[in-house]
Amino acid sequence: RKAKNNYCRRTSLKVNFKDIGWDKWIVAPPEYDAYECKGVCYFPLTDDVSPSRHAVIQTLVNLSNPKKANMACCVPTKLDPIAVMYQEKGVITVRHLYEEMKVAKCGCR
Amino acid sequence: SESICELKDVSGNSNDWIVLREKPLGCWTDFQTENGTEVHIINLEDNPSVFTVNLLKANKSVVIFTSSSAQSSHAMLFDNPAVSIYVTNKTSLTFIHPTQKPLQILTAPPAGNVSAVLRWAAETFGGVTSVTNARNPKTITFTGVKGSQNSSRCELMPETPTEKPFIHLELNEPIEALKSCYMKHEGEKLHIINIPDGVTIRHVSVHLLSDCNVVLRGPAGTHWIIKNSLRIGILSNNQIHLQSFPLRPRMAISDNPTDIRQKALSYFSSGFISSYSEIRLNVTNVELWITDYSISSAPTEVEKTTPSPTSPPFPVQMQLFSSPDFTTPIDNNSRVLSDKRVYAEISSQTFREASIRVSSCWVRSTPVTREMPFREEPCFIKDCPKRLSFSFQILQDLPAGSWDLECAVKLCGVKRINNEESCTSETPVKRNVQVKPFTPTTNSCFEFGLSAVLGIAFGGFLIGVLLTGALWFIKIRTGHPVALGMRSTAAELSVLSISGCPCGLTKRQPVPTHPSPSENSSANASIGSTQSTPTSSMA
Q: Which neighbouring-strand residues pair with A16?
């Protein structure tokens, strides 16, 4: 029962650039939702978590002998860009596609 | 729930059978204040966190930014001293200049919605030039172009913002706003549009471009307007206006694809569904075009096919000609001199209505590949194939040989569904040519042009006529021909022939050493004298 509540999924992760010292060069936005992947890849792996064949095999091995293999990992399977305004040598520029900044999908790998 | 077919995201909200366009509320007029200032309102929707506003080319104007969203945004501003910028009080929008210089941003009173801002602006400035909805913009650019509009009062109506000449919007594409799939089959077509519950669309204008049955399913309160009067069958759970004729909802239909499928097939007594589309765009007004994929223009259809490595994805032929009137074909075994121009006709028998575009040509004979410059030749016949001409001068420094002449071509046509041009991907079209380098001879032959040849021929003819006249005159005066005179004339004329030329351009006429039997006739003599000229034999 607990497993169902803790299944691999995407959750919110608000990031303030000031907290990580990136505010020195990222002018805007000051913060954004980067999302993160949380949870456990319990057996059986469903289509929602788009498991790789290897993840399915690892999960089955773990099910039969937990000491032999770990469970598959809940990780980002698709990342999206965000638009940022950054400064370089005193000039501010807009970059519309700053790649791999937020999680779009999570899955078991 | 299970879908009717494998839904795929429609990139750019447009494909071969369905086109979806937002129709946000907006307006534009020819209003200017007494001192020539324009008044523009930008309504930001679905605010992005960062975007760009470019006012560098803007006319003298007031630009008011408003948004009903609480999300904060930052805009890079390329400002213009002729433009005053207002932001409504509750709009969380911060402008930043590229050099971080301070900017003067004025505050407009808070407004609940764009209509209230429009009223405030009309009262404050005496009128409004435009109201434009910008949903999730990347850049908003004022072009400085003056729009010409008869209306002087800005009344909000569903519009297409791209039609405004004075503003250019670059918007972030909505993600997964339209998903669709198509299943080709014979017989009557059945298209299903499903706007799931929870989507905010309320008004949909539908253009059906071919006879078909349609299922229009939307959340309660959705209003569909069908713009054309083709032979169509309609099933909907919403209010529909067919042209201006109102139709009541037929039955309740949930947004579950299985429920829709079952009711659609049962209602139309049909065995097939042609297309199924889901719209998840959170705007109020949209416009939709649906057509039968199988009658879309051919190039778009072939664009979808996967080309095999050995055959081009569409059949295109290239025929070569040696003359600019495209009447003398060059067969595969013929040799082409590198100094001669070759004319090529590229055509597609299958897709005659499509236009052919040639991007580049090259010649290849392993391991050498050279770019082949080409010239497009004019063509005035109906459904003309593509006509080009080439010169093989670029191979002048190489020995004679077999070359593959290749051109990268694509077929372009206009989609029936939205009149947008669509092209196939490029494919090569190839012909083999035997090229022989031109080797100029070292002897000093005269090079006669056409005008020189004609001039000499005419001169020879004139001399012949004069000679005949002279002989005729002598005959009349003396009563007998002058054989000696004729002989001397022939000798003089033979000087005109080109001596010592090995090119064989002319046949030399030997000077007769004794009178021929025919010299007794003045008429024959005159003919003979004409034949003695080198030009006459050429002519």
A: A31
Angstrom CA distances, B182 to B190, B212, B276, B332, stand at: 10, 14, 7, 44
Residues in chain A closer than 8 A to B98 (CB atoms): 91-93
Minimal CA separation from A11 to chain B, in Å = 19
Of B234, B202, B235, the closest CA to residue B218 belongs to B202
Long-range contacts for B63-67 (Cβ within 8 Å, ≥24 apart)? Answer: B63/B142, B64/B39, B64/B40, B64/B88, B64/B108, B64/B117, B64/B121, B65/B91, B65/B93, B66/B41, B66/B42, B66/B91, B66/B108, B66/B111, B66/B114, B66/B117, B67/B43, B67/B91, B67/B92, B67/B93
pLDDT tens sequence across B356-383: 888 888 888 777 778 888 888 887 776 6
Closest CA to A44 of A35, A34, A55, A33: A55
Residue type, position B79, single letter: D
| pLDDT tens sequence across B56-69 | 999 999 999 999 88
Chain A residue nearest residue B52, CA to CA = A94
SS3 B335: strand
Give the gap in angstroms from C-alpha B138 to the nearest C-alpha of chain A.
7
What ipTM does the predicted assembly reach? 0.82
A28 neighbourhood in chain B, CB within 8 Å: 49-50, 74, 94, 96
Q: Tens digit of pLDDT for each residue in B389-416? A: 888 888 777 777 788 888 888 877 766 5
Q: Are B129 and B29 in contact (CB under 8 A)?
A: yes
- The conformation of residue A48, written as its DSSP 8-state character, comes to G
Could you tell me the two tokens for B105?
Answer: 């941003």
Q: Which amino acid is at B336?
A: V
Work out the minimum CA distance from B100 to partner chain A, whole angstroms: 7
Residues 6+ apart with CB under 8 A from B182: B5, B16, B17, B274, B275, B293
Mind giving me the DSSP string for B262-329? HHHHHHTT-S---EEEEE----SEEEEEE--GGGS-HHHHHHTSPPPSSS-SS--EEEEESSTTS-SB
Q: In this structure, are residues B340 and B322 in contact, taking their beta carbons and an 8 Å threshold?
A: yes
3-state secondary structure B427-448: EEEEEEEEEECCCCCCCCCCCC
CB contact under 8 A, A83 and B50: yes
Query: With b meaning 16 or more CB within 10 Å and e meaning fewer, what string describes B130-142?
Result: bbbbbbebbbbbb
DSSP letter at B519?
A: G
B50/A29 Cβ within 8 A: yes
